[in-house]
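Proteins fold reproducibly. Next comes an illustrative record:
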Amino acid sequence: MHTAFALTLVFVGCCSNVVFLELLVRDSPGCGNIVTFAQFSFIALEGFIFEANFGRKKPAIPFSNYVIMVTMYFAVSVVNNYALNFNISMPLHMIFRSGSLIANIILGIIILKKRYTITKYVSIALVSLGIFICTIMTAKQVASEPSANEGEGFYPFLRWLFGIAMLTFALLMSARMGIFQETLYKKYGKHSKEALFYNHCLPLPGFLLLASDIYNHSVLFSQSAPVDVPVIGIKAPVMWLYLSMNVLTQYVCIRGVFILTTECTSLTVTLVVTLRKFISLIFSIMYFRNPFTVWHWIGTLVVFIGTLMYTEVWNSVRTLHRGDKEEAKKD
């Protein structure tokens, strides 16, 4: 029952979140900071009330470790959202972040001295190839955009390159944070909900550095066209409505993943998240009519085949199939 509920939260929450994020980005391309701030504030408030018990509950993991983790988490979140300001399309953004497997394995080999099977390395190669195909195809689209002169055509391409560099940095930093969390959990035990609260609460002062940008977008949001809010029956600026729905669906998504990690194996969680990314990508392309060529489709398919290979889904399916045959023979 809990697993089915968690799956519903993940697919409904995460897929809806992508829709509202793209609606925000399409109308206000530089709104990444206010979106991140709103998400962090809401999740921090919920955690302060229900996890930290209004500050009365002491953390199970030393506070100094959370400071390090939060610094990395804040950097990843801000850079990922801010990259959308640099000619990075939403489909490419989603596909590029699917390369987390590559970053995790590379840093795992370097930092934790881990070794992997041939299947794992093949899956890494496939994911890398898929991302490379999509990146190159998008680069050609950006570079070939019509412009009045060469300078105007080259400038968007430079901005796109900077966006790719930001996504690469965020990918590696996210993998490093994952390794750091793994080390902490081995030492102090798993406290995912506590980590979720501190990861969103401690970075809030950092948004003071982005205060002017957040304020400017608040003004722009308030000036957007008013629409009727369902159920409540009042009018509100459409951008604030999009932002509210984005924050709520982000919370639903994160809560769903948290419940899933307590109910299922890591293999199941990885598979669910992978399928969620694929469904979100397809919906984004179809609904918003994002430019997507045949090569983009090939690259996307290769990325997700590689990800499924990494989770060893094929071996699990074969094992389950053999088990069914043995049960049939016994009957």
About this structure: The beta strands are 226-228, 235-237. The first helix runs from residue 2 to 27. Confidence is low (pLDDT under 50) at residues 147-151. The first strand starts at residue 226 and ends at 228.
